[in-house]
Each structure stands twice: as structure tokens, then as C-alpha cells.
Amino acid sequence: xxxxxxxxxxxxxxxxxxxxxxxxxxxxxxxxxxxxxxxxxxxxxxxxxxxxxxxxxxxxxxxxxxxxxxxxxxxxxxxxxxxxxxxxxxxxxxxxxx
Length: 98
What we know:
Blueprint: H1 3-14, H2 33-47, H3 53-56, H4 63-83, H5 87-97
Helix pairs in contact: 1-4
Domain Carrier: 1-74
Protein name: Carrier domain-containing protein
InterPro entries: ACP-like_sf (IPR036736), PP-bd_ACP (IPR009081)
């Protein structure tokens, strides 16, 4: 499991669901809209990410799908941050990464 899949599985477990694999479906495990709201709130509190609800319903809501949504949201936030930086700021950031 990826770190994000592990985090999703832990949050789901804390919310009363018991995923055995990353392909277990949220709703098949007994998840409902109020539990989904709790999941979204936990992701925002723990990871600082606001997941778009509609993206979670584009595919079956599995641990793996939720983790991919987290990864996409994190990437979009990073790209938006880079977009607001000057070339000099980006260069300085990249030089620190080496």
C-alpha cells in the first residue's frame, strides 16, 4: 500500500469501516453520506487538503481511488503554488532541492 492508501484505510477504519484491501468499496463497507463528510473533514484536518466531492464519485470510491484523489489534489495545489512564483523563486526552490 502507498502512504496515502494507508492513511485512507486508517481514516476509514477510524470512521467504522473495515477495508481489507485497497479495492474495497466505501459504500459496500457501509459508508454513507455522513461518513463521507467525516472522511473529507479528516483529510482536510490531517493533510490540509480539500478533496472535491465530485471527483470521488467519478469512479468507484475505493481506498485506492480515494488515495489517487488525494495525490491529484496535492499535485494541483503544488502546481498552483509554483504558478504564483517568479522564475527566481522557482530557481531558488529547485536549488534547495539538490
